[in-house]
What does this fold into?
Amino acid sequence: MESENKDHTGSKIGMWLILYTEIMLFGGLFVLYAAYLKKFPEEFFTSGKQLDLFFGTLNTVILLISSFAVAASITSIRLDKRKLALGMLWLTIFCGLIFLYNKFIEWGHKFEVGIFPGSETMADLSPGENIFFGLYYVITGLHGLHIVIGMALLLFSVIKIYMNKIDKDSYIILENSGLYWHLVDLIWIFIFPLFYLIV
Amino acid sequence: MLNAHIISYKKLGIILTALLILTGITVFMSTLDFGSLNIWIALIIASTKASLVLLFFMHMKYEPWLIKWSFLITVSFLAVLIGFIFWDISFR
It folds into this structure.
């Protein structure tokens, strides 16, 4: 047995501190969004309509289900149901992959019609539309990066469970990875209405 | 100290159902036209969803006061950031 004296609460507080910096990071970007929405309301409304509501809603549902799966995997590991915990984590990672695939399709469609940073079509758009799509790429791109990091953390937890390093008595790594994944979901909960539901 | 509280599958399932229903509601509301109120309705529903994720999936409801308060302080700083910037741009 290595490191028997684990500070569970201390680790969790450390994780929350990281999450606070993430909240401020995305919070800053949302402030930028809000300030420009106030300046260019009409342009934001017409640009928002060009985003695919189907993919936006689908990805919201996928992330909510994956968040549930992570929470269920923590409950499972604490009840000593190792197999179920692993199943739930694989489901979460699978959800993450589908999310990224949808995002790839979605960005791909936008690239096809010439809307991507630095394109001629973007340069010809009005300033308001240009800013909307600029923010769309920055915020969903940064969020996508967080999905990848979250998946890596969860994969790390899966490996630790296979190695019996995570069990019903020691599961802080899984819990902290789960917290990160939930935060990614939390941020998407705000991205979704701001970009897809704006009418 | 290990946190003694374990959230049951049933409770997690109820929260997921509530989140999915709220997603349905917010998509439906966006098809109606309330003018500038639309964005506020969407944000209120989003905040409700975020609270559910935070309290139950992220276990906040059962955490010690230190985590609860540090989270609230973070959100207050975010509110100050948003508030002061709008205070500025609204009166230019």
Notes: The helical segments of chain A are 8-39, 41-49, 53-78, 82-112, 120-124, 127-162, 172-196. Chain A has a mean pLDDT of 93.
